[in-house]
Amino acid sequence: MTMDERIESLKSKHASLEATIQSETCRPRPDDGVIHELKREKLRIKDEIVRLTTVR
Asked: Quick one: CA dihedral 31, 36, 39, 45, positive or negative?
């Protein structure tokens, strides 16, 4: 996998997590624990994207 492919894959996962967070938030009784973990993972992915783009 090339660096560009890796970055695109991470961007896709990041967008998917955003959609999942939005879906969870809109539920009648959203699970704050799940939302917190999803946001943590989303931030981890964003940090990796930034790290990879600055290395290039």
From this structure: negative
